Amino acid sequence: PTLEYDDQNIFAKILRGEIPCRKVFEDEWALAFDDINPQAPVHVLVIPKGAYVSWDDFSAKASDAEVAGFVRAVGHVARELGLVEPGYRLLANIGIDAHQEVPHLHVHIFGGKPLGPMLM
Ligand code: 5GP
């Protein structure tokens, strides 16, 4: 598995505005948008603005400011969407065994219904 960042990945194109998205939130550190194939009534992806392949890459290489900015953006989006009181789920797939499809770090936010236990 390569750790080389591919700037032609689909989320890099979304960040550059080359491909449209349904934007939920954007700041200096992060962009949040609706997943194109939602698995729950609320299914939002939050990505850092920096070029990081995965959570592993990000946690190893990103600056403290980038990490803080991204973590705060995820929390902010969940609050703005009214998910805190009913509850929500965060998920990040990393690498092959987890079926990570897009090689730019993304955290999934799921909510809007009782999600049930996580099976895997
Ligand atoms: P992964 O399996 O990598 O954790 O999740 C990738 C997610 O990106 C999937 O839920 C998929 O539906 C979503 N996705 C893939 N391509 C696009 C796209 O072009 N636009 C948006 N909004 N979501 C996408």
UniProtKB/TrEMBL annotation:
Q: Quote the protein name from its UniProt record.
A: Histidine triad nucleotide-binding protein
Single GO MF annotation: catalytic activity
Q: Where is the HIT domain?
A: 10-120
Q: Where is the active site?
A: H106
Query: SUPFAM superfamilies, alphabetically?
Result: HIT-like
Q: Where is this motif: Histidine triad motif?
A: 104-108
Source taxonomy lineage? Bacteria, Pseudomonadati, Pseudomonadota, Alphaproteobacteria, Sphingomonadales
Q: Which Pfam families match?
A: HIT
Q: Can you name the source organism?
A: Sphingorhabdus wooponensis
